[in-house]
Design goal:
Blueprint lengths: L1 E4 L2 E4 L2 E3 L10 E5 H7 L10 E5 L17 E6 L6 H12 L5 E6 L6 H6 L4 E4 L5 H7 L13
Parallel strand pairs: 3-4, 4-5, 5-6, 6-7, 7-8
Antiparallel strand pairs: 1-2, 1-8
Length: 150
């Protein structure tokens, strides 16, 4: 699968594991509940570890562990749920997270520019045919009135 990362289309190296999946080697993402339950065992994992946040998840639940997390995947169950915008902004501006913040799920290409402004630097689109369209939206505006995390 391909993603947009740092304004480029790249191959994705991450595997999203369900709570019932066995831990595999390589770069993996886990739900926040699985991370909280298994983080001590995961310290010896051979790849990078990411955490998936649903809109209702509290960012503060992982702030003490941010140094051990390489990627935070913000799940958009539907494009009309904007809570993940706030999660991204908090992670970057309040908590200083410097790892990858990735949008996954049901966001739409029209939101990519605004997600990038609040700190999302990678985009995993369900429809791979929309990669170029989403990438082009990152240059929609050249002047912004508000400050940005990027």
């Amino acid at each position: 699968m391909k993603i947009i990362k740092h304004k480029q289309i790249l191959e994705d190296s991450w595997t999203h594991l369900a709570d019932s999946d066995e831990i595999s080697s390589g770069d993996i993402t886990l739900s926040i509940s699985r991370w909280k339950n298994e983080k001590n065992e995961l310290k010896s994992h051979s790849g990078n570890i990411g955490v998936r946040l649903a809109p209702a998840d509290n960012v503060e639940d992982i702030t003490a562990d941010l140094q051990n997390i390489s990627l935070i995947a913000l799940d958009f169950p539907v494009f009309t749920d904007g809570r993940s915008f706030s999660q991204a902004r908090l992670l970057r501006s309040r908590y200083g997270f410097t790892g990858e913040i990735r949008a996954i799920g049901g966001f739409i290409t029209d939101q990519v520019f605004y997600l990038h402004r609040v700190g999302v630097d990678a985009f995993e689109l369900k429809d791979q045919d929309q990669l170029n369209a989403a990438l082009s939206t990152m240059n929609d505006f050249t002047v912004c009135y508000q400050s940005s995390t990027n």
